[in-house]
Amino acid sequence: MEQVPPIKISDVSFSFGPTPVLKDISLVVEQEDFLGLIGPNGGGKTTLLKIILGLLEPDQGTVEIYGKRPERARRLIGYVPQRSDIDFDFPISVLEVVLMGRLTKRGLGRRYTAQDREICREALRQVGAERFESRHISHLSGGQRQRVMIARAIASRPRLLLLDEPASSVDPGWQEAFYGLLQELNKEVAVVLVTHDVGIISSYVDKLACINTRLTYHGSPEGGMKCLVDIYEHPVHLLSHKKHKHDD
After folding, report:
1. Of 55, 69, 60, 80, nearest to 11 (Cα)?
2. Whole-model pTM above 0.90?
């Protein structure tokens, strides 16, 4: 039986008023994919993620998440937005923030279980933030808060993980470990990562998709060189690949 892909986008277009943001996008993401989604500012990357999440409705075309409409598949998706939806001045602990990731599994109004708490503590350990568990979220630095947001997404135990510029505020010393963590998660979870760190992510992702209103390339990082030059209008240096999950 053929496996249903995590993401199937067919002929999607979207505009804000008279301004076209996406035109005729067709893209399939397979379960084993670690996809880097790149393009210039205003090229439509974040808009495409919001359409995948069901937060925006395309003007034309269809999106399927594991064969379902996006709004019916949100329990299967972990999401790290570019800007957090948490009010960091709200009196809430780090563990309580991460527990929000269990709401899609637990449901509103139901109490968290001991298993929920252990799953969240494990997610904090994965991002190296376990020591902040009881700390007020407002007392953390920007990079530490971002780790907590990533832990929240991991705690939902998703089948598909979407991240929008997740390393933008992560401390540089943890970036390599962060990308390594995504590579490890990708053994079981499909990963789509929006980023501008083209040279860095080329060492970790299996595929690149270049979006500048249209999808101009989808394939191996090495094969995307011309697309990258066209988008960024200057040479882009890709780092040599490290060991991939397929190299075991």
Report:
1. 60
2. no
What angle, 0 to 180 degrees and rounded to 10, lies between the N-to-C axes of helices 142-155 and 172-185? Answer: 10
Specify the long-range contacts of residues 187-190, CB closer than 8 Å, at least 24 apart.
Answer: 187/245, 189/78, 189/158, 189/159, 189/160, 189/161, 190/6, 190/7, 190/29, 190/30, 190/31, 190/32, 190/33, 190/34, 190/35, 190/159, 190/160, 190/161
Tokens coding 192: 């789509």
Q: What is the CA radius of gyration of the chain?
A: 18
Q: Which residue has the tokens 């799953």?
A: 119
Q: Output the six-digit token pair for 153.
A: 């997404």
Give the tens place of pLDDT for each residue, 1-45: 568 999 999 999 999 999 999 999 999 999 999 999 998 888 999
Q: Which two tokens stand for residue 213?
A: 């209103």
CATH 3.40.50.300 fits 7-86+158-247, yes or no: yes
Nearest-angstrom CA–CA distance, 104 and 106: 6
Residue 110 backbone dihedrals phi, psi, to 5 degrees? -100, 145
CA distances from 49 to 111, 120, 132, 173 (A): 30, 25, 29, 27
Ordered alpha helix ranges (H), the chain: 45-53, 94-99, 103-106, 114-126, 142-155, 172-185, 198-201, 225-232
DSSP conformation class of 55: S
Q: How far apart are CA 69 and CA 81, in angstroms?
A: 20
